[in-house]
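Data deposition worksheet. Section B asks for the primary sequence of the deposited chain exactly as it was used as input, without tags or linkers unless they were present during the calculation. Section C holds the resulting structure in token form. Section D is free text for depositor observations; keep each observation to a single sentence. Incomplete worksheets are returned to the depositor.
Section A, Depositor: J.P.
Section B:
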Amino acid sequence: MQRDQVDKENLEVLDLAVDLASQAGAIQRQRYETQLDVRTKSASIDLVTEVDRQCEALIIAGLQAVRPGDAILAEEGGGRDHDESPWRWVIDPLDGTTNYAHGFPRFCVSIGVEYRGSRRIGVVYDPLLDELFYAVHGAGAWLGQRRLAVSSTAVLGEALVATGFAYDVHDSQDDNLARFAQVLKAARGIRRDGSAALDLCYVAAGRLDAYWEFKLHAWDVVAGCLIVEEAGGCVSDILGGPVPPAGDEIVATNALLHAAILAQMNA
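Section C:
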């Protein structure tokens, strides 16, 4: 990234987000495959561990020390609103907690930052692969020093697609299974890895051609959406409109496949 072409405050916010994500990732790496205190939240498959809480506390403490006036929305509830602040940090301290609790190596730290309601900074850190994905609005998306670009796949039958299932999948009739089956028949392959933030980054990196999911939250998608857009991809709701502010409905593609995936969502 050409740092001299990026606004000074955006650079400061990016550097802080990268530092905090790296520190949280170090905790995750250290505690990976150790004995954890695993508890449930909204459902029996909606898990939280002491590592989630420790990472969130670290990130929030670091933010409050440097930028005490910024608003914070964090998954485990440790953030605080500042209605008068133009900046809001949207944090998933450990995206992929179920994976983490089972020792499945697909999880990350996700930190998105909004300015006056618009996505401005996105940082996603995979501590096991030591892969740092980041983007600044108008300055591209990057994996380390490599600029990211979405894939050039233009045919759904040649596409590798990812999705996920909500925590109420055991009880809700709106379970994404019909769409899963439909896309499975239409695409080259389909994956369900359990980390929305990494799925979005993989679309940005061209590792996936498309991704969709429902019943997410803002902390799952704010960082990843910006990374996809800055890599040349497209993000929307299932009707092709803006991703809802709460992040509860998202389709992300390399742009070439967007109409085809939306058609599958609305068939």
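Section D:
The CA atoms of residues 240 and 262 lie 7 Å apart.
The longest helix spans residues 8-31.
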